[in-house]
Amino acid sequence: MAKGIREYNNKLASLSNTLKMTKTMKMVSASKLRKAQNAQRSSQAYADRLNQIIARLAASVDAGAHPLMTPHERSDKALVLVYTSDKGLCGAFNNSMIRHVEQWLTMHRDDYSKIDLSFCGRRGFMHFVRRGLLNKNYEGVTASPSFADAAMIGDDLIEAYLSGRYDEIYLAYNVFHSPLSQEPTFRKILPIQPAEIAGASQLPTTTAALDYIFEPPQEELLKALIPRTVKFKIYYALLENAAGEHGARMTSMDNATTNCEKMIDHYTLMRNRARQAAITTELIEIISGAEAL
Fold it and tell me: What integer best gives the mean pLDDT of the chain?
């Protein structure tokens, strides 16, 4: 019985250490989530204004005014930039994204002669690396999103589209709704679709009928704004992914903390019962020995 008490004490000590770890990770994730949400809200205001400018500009030009707005003659080759996290312990955050990508690949297998994957986040890269779909892996860009990393990725994607290596380019990432809810989604970023931007900007329908005077000239505006729009979409997806990751990890660690506390209560009760049984057994032995004498 003493051996059982030692085993319970060892389990309780291990659970106490685990409880400290899960509580610490929960607090760290909560702090990082607040920072990610603040960055996301600030970027949303910038995204709205940028979409409004592009929507007004796109309403006054044709689709062939810029190479990134011009669809290729054939859409045979697609590239998907998949966002996951570098670390685990964040519940179903990565697994739901991976399943969503696999379903998308199955559904569109016949639509393209070639589909490649690029990755932001080690978890997605580790899952798909053996399937032969790898184009490029961007390491260390999801933990602390920066526009410099997004610009670097955007330059690669723009070059891949303009060179004709890919006809369509998508982003696959988790949209952050709350710490309990992250929604996997696909967004096409190349070629740019002016109608989609106009809808996202929520401009009045009369915008398309207005005739603008451009300063600087239209070509210079497009040359500056269109690539920046692509890069900012990549950056905003990084922010969404970071907020979703920290929210999912905070929720996961909160659940782990609750389960750990329940197990500590359970094993404490079992240890006390074992100790009581051991004491009762010793008393019976002492009384039996005294009666025998």
Answer: 84
